[in-house]
Amino acid sequence: MRSTNWSKENIHHVALWMPNWLGDVVFAVPAVQGIRKVFPEARFTALVRRPADDFLKHHPAFDSVICIPHSASSGALASLRFGWSLRKYRFDLSILFPNALRAALLSRLSGSRLRLGYGTEWRGGLLTHSIPAIDSRSLHAVDYYYGLAQALNAPPLERTFDAVLTDEDIARQKVMLAGKGLGDTPCLVAVQPGASKPEKRWHAERFGELCRRLIADQDAQVVFLGSQAEAGLIDEVRAHCPPDKCAALTGLPMHDVLGVIKNCRLLIANDSGIMNLAAMVGTPVVAIFGPGNVLTTDPVIAPEKKEIVTKNFPCSPCRHRFFEECEPSPNSKPYCIEDIQVEEVMQAVQRLLQRV
Q: Mean pLDDT for the chain?
């Protein structure tokens, strides 16, 4: 990357091209917080896919949010038109967290004067400042994304998150939970049985048995979280639980999800975006890692506030080439998730409850 005195570059408007996946958006936030310290007077605009736009609107490091259109029906021409439409914002600097060629092309079309990113996928010619590519599987995603902040001479990484919830946000979700009959217990537990890919999901019946035991042994109440598409999966889990001790909240905006999680004593989840949202607001996490990479996507929260349940098979970290490099279980799961038993997760929950 060429040497640049960023203090003399007259930066007024910064475009933050955020990662595609919800969890990765969370991992990129500390980098944005660091970059904000380099350009404290500049306007920061996030370009991001749904549903992450909903909570970034409330984060103090961002002044505005633009949703990147993304659907199966939108073609290359629509994407190029979107990039061109951004010229009216007059970006002085674009920071590209995704490594895709598409992000660099759209940033170039936006007319951004300066464009910083990792020099991957032969896109160096579209960037004005290209950082040598490194293996993103060799370090945590927070550190990987912070490499872009370091290139701008940001201060050392702080593995913390600025507050994205107000006291009013938290109180509003507390009232909503009370309306569902939840919250009159010191052990309100959030559970997310879904994940981005079926192979990353622990069995629904095991989640159900775990929740049934928590309700019986800890006098717990359970709030199930997930997308509208995961409503059927959540119903499978709920079938194992007393109906008066649990409720399902599907399809909530991400900012509301954050408020719900903040009202809970802990979250139990597969390796997922919601797992990382919990860490973002400081809610303790029991994370179930099957084929996910704990090295790169471990929730960013104090060690005493998390328990990771994983098998650490020799094939870890997995490249998600399911059943090409490993045999499926009889239940069509990778054995790294299949072999995790209810008792193991229950013990992790108990250890965490003793600490928090």
A: 90
Q: Quick check: helix, strand or coil at residue 184? A: coil
C-alpha–C-alpha distance, residues 173 and 256, integer Å: 7
CB of 320 within 8 A of CB of 298? no
User: Residue with structure tokens 């996928």?
Assistant: 121
> What share of the chain has pLDDT > 70, as a percent?
95
Cα–Cα distance for residue pair 46/248, rounded to 1 Å: 31
> Poorest-confidence range of 223-227, 246-250, 255-259, 319-323?
319-323
DSSP per-residue letters across 267-293: EEEESSHHHHHHHHTT--EEEEESSS-
Alpha-carbon distance 221 to 188, whole Å?
A: 5
Q: Are 165 and 51 in contact (CB under 8 A)?
A: no
CA distances from 20 to 77, 91, 273, 278 (A): 20, 21, 11, 19
Q: Reduced to 3 states, what is the DSSP secondary structure of residue 73?
A: coil
Tell me the per-residue pLDDT of 39-84, one tens digit each, with 9 for 90 and over: 999 999 999 998 899 999 999 999 999 999 875 456 778 888 999 9
What pTM, to 2 d.p., does this model score? 0.92
Closest C-alpha to 285, from 100, 293, 296, 297: 297
Question: Are residues 301 and 267 in contact, defined by beta-carbon separation less than 8 angstroms?
Answer: no
Span 129-168, pLDDT tens digits: 999 988 877 899 999 999 999 999 999 999 999 999 999 9
Task: State the sign of the Cα–Cα–Cα–Cα dihedral 288, 289, 294, 298.
Answer: negative
Name the pairing type of β-strands 221-226 and 246-250. parallel
Grouping H, G, I as helix, E, B as strand and the rest as coil, residue 23 is helix
The residue with tokens 């032969």 is 122
